[in-house]
Amino acid sequence: MYTEIKGGITAPKGFKAAGVQAGIKKSGKHDVAVIYSTVPASVAGVCTTNTMAAAPVAVSRLAFESGIASAIVVNSGCANACTGEQGLSDANAMAQITADLLSIPKEDVLVASTGIIGVTLPMEKVTAGIKAAVAQLGPDEQDYSTLAIMTTDTFQKHCAYEFELGGVPVRIAGIAKGSGMIHPNMATMLAFITTDAAIAPALLKQALTDAVNVSFNMISVDGDTSTNDMATVLANGLAGNKKIETKNEDYAAFTKILTEVCIYLAKQIVVDGEGATKFLELNVTGAASFADAKKTAMAIAKSPLVKTAFFGEDANWGRILCAVGYSEAAADPTKISLSIGDLTIVKQGLGAPIDELELKKIMAEHDIRVVVDLGLGQAEATMWTCDFSYEYVKINGEYHT
Amino acid sequence: MYTEIKGGITAPKGFKAAGVQAGIKKSGKHDVAVIYSTVPASVAGVCTTNTMAAAPVAVSRLAFESGIASAIVVNSGCANACTGEQGLSDANAMAQITADLLSIPKEDVLVASTGIIGVTLPMEKVTAGIKAAVAQLGPDEQDYSTLAIMTTDTFQKHCAYEFELGGVPVRIAGIAKGSGMIHPNMATMLAFITTDAAIAPALLKQALTDAVNVSFNMISVDGDTSTNDMATVLANGLAGNKKIETKNEDYAAFTKILTEVCIYLAKQIVVDGEGATKFLELNVTGAASFADAKKTAMAIAKSPLVKTAFFGEDANWGRILCAVGYSEAAADPTKISLSIGDLTIVKQGLGAPIDELELKKIMAEHDIRVVVDLGLGQAEATMWTCDFSYEYVKINGEYHT
């Protein structure tokens, strides 16, 4: 049980944030943000698995290892990826400048960047931006910090909830960005979550990993896992709940809400997928294992032929079965069934008689649910993806370096 | 050494072919073909790895196992995939009808289909088509057999060469189709190769497997491996060369030419990739292993972000490095180099100073070569792919079932 609250990323006690226009983005829009906990917080993070991981990821990993942090500094407009020694030095400088201004250890500052790859940061602008952001730290009622992490996003993605742990009110909030280069294992996606819950770093790490596995790791826009991305949560304990130090009832309750936050933000990213006109929920059931269910869902979610068919509002189930077939998951053509919306389209491998008008209505909707029952076991997985439109090609063909 | 010759798929001695309009395609275009060797031939085939493999694939596999065949019957307009018992019975009927008309054993007939998945064959039309095609068997100077295997292809793909084995002139010819659902491990791709070389089935199988691994398995249009596809070669021995029964010099010479045929046809498929405006050759060098080189090339070839960037004529090397990073191949950001055309773009992980005008000229060309040097070892791989355009979305969004 939780209730939605106002206040954005600074809704939990003891958090301040600000977003400013530092001139890194050519558009002049907000591009530097600082998120700050007035007391040191437990921290956990999950980063990109890309071997070309950007410099800020390397810097943040150190903070994640210590389990304690109190600030996040982030810029958009430049990913500081594939930038070598200079990039690493710049990412460290971002942490150092923020730390000095806030009088905290450099190791307590997380760094994140998003934007164009292969270009070094304009450090003069970045430095001025960090100074301005720190000077403006406060409740961030205008949500400028969310604006400052956006790239091709068309809307801000945030949520804030209040719930109870042992009768004590606890708050959690999250912001995220991402709309292209989105795929499991942290694509060009940033998610920053704040909470005033008291929880030990090791348990926070476990809770975040579990939450990410069923949220950010289950979305795909274009199959590209990026160089920069991370999901992180700061838990500063100011709610005053009994600190979670074992996998008790409170841990379960906290993990559940954290998962809700991650799923909400992950879905928002897919809804804002570059050029997306459809939001697709893929539910694979009856798999021999979770791994098989996920592989199957992912093959469907990545298939350009499936995605263009949904764009064309065509229930081309042959393309879906074809993707199932090359997913490398165990599958039997005589046992597979498929439904779109409430309509059974395929039953045990064969096309079922369908109400064409009803199907047309379902395919015309924005939100479409596809269920693939492999008919082999009990495991299942849910993924979210979007369609491939002219607009996706336009955005990515015209987004020049 | 070989010379190009005329005569298409029937250029090698003892082969006849025909393509007819059987009315399976709504367009009324050619849709049934028969290719026939007047004497039993050695046969080898490589089929889709898709677990939803279509009925004709199951039937052809039996012929491949025996190593001997004398005819291929193929239709376009309907893939006979995901059609259950009825589909298998129809594919067997196609073989039986062809066998009866040609007075050969049913087991000597290969069956192939391409087109829409999930619909059963209109067997009355198919039967009439096979009868008409067999009646018209001859030199197929008009290349109707090539027309009859096309779906969304915009041009015919064929080649015919003459070369020598031990001083004896030998001929080889191939036709292929495919432009969407194209990815390694046999995508919606059919390739039929005829030769009058004399070669034992086991060696023919080895030669074809090696040839396919560096040709059809190294192309990607959209990452979708289809349910139906196969590459097959019939070798009837009528050239009169000393039969190849060991891995001798003749075997090497034959494999080399067979590989040339497969690479030529594979490249033609990419050139005709749905909506393609660019032909990209990806050459990955310096990899720790061939598997790593191939993984790297494939990740780049599949990336919608890379493909849309080439469509937009933008040398967005960050997206290429990003794809390298998530390819799961060993890679080191400080050792990787990249060139496009003759220009070095990235040197040891860092953007190199480039002549922007020269780069713009290269990106504006139709054929573009990208070399990624991982700087780790000696292995390399070459793949061919195309860009992602508005037209790809249009073709696949509007190709209704």
Describe this structure in words.
The structure is a homodimer of 401-residue chains. With 401 residues, chain A is α+β, with helices and mostly antiparallel strands. Chain A has two domains: 3-271, 4-Layer Sandwich (L-amino peptidase D-ALA esterase/amidase); 279-398, Roll (Ubiquitin-like (UB roll)). Chain A is 33% helix and 28% strand. Chain A has helices at 55-66, 84-102, 123-135, 144-148, 201-213, 249-271, 290-302, 304-311, 317-326, 356-364, 390-398, and strands at residues 3-4, 15-20, 32-47, 68-78, 109-116, 157-165, 168-177, 190-195, 219-220, 230-235, 279-287, 337-340, 343-347, 350-351, 367-373, 379-386. In chain A, strands 1, 2, 3, 4, 5, 6, 7, 8 and 10 form a nine-stranded mixed beta sheet that branches. A seven-stranded mixed beta sheet of chain A has the order 9-16-11-15-12-13-14, with helices on both faces. In chain A, a hairpin with a 2-residue loop joins β12 and β13 (343-347). In chain A, α1 (55-66) crosses α2 (84-102), α2 (84-102) runs parallel beside α3 and α7 (290-302) packs across α9 (317-326). The model of chain A has no long low-confidence stretch (mean pLDDT 92). Chains A and B meet through α8, α9, β14 and α11 of A and α8, α9, β14 and α11 of B. Chains A, B: Belongs to the ArgJ family. Chains A, B: It catalyses: L-glutamate + acetyl-CoA = N-acetyl-L-glutamate + CoA + H(+); N(2)-acetyl-L-ornithine + L-glutamate = N-acetyl-L-glutamate + L-ornithine. Chains A, B: Pfam families: ArgJ.
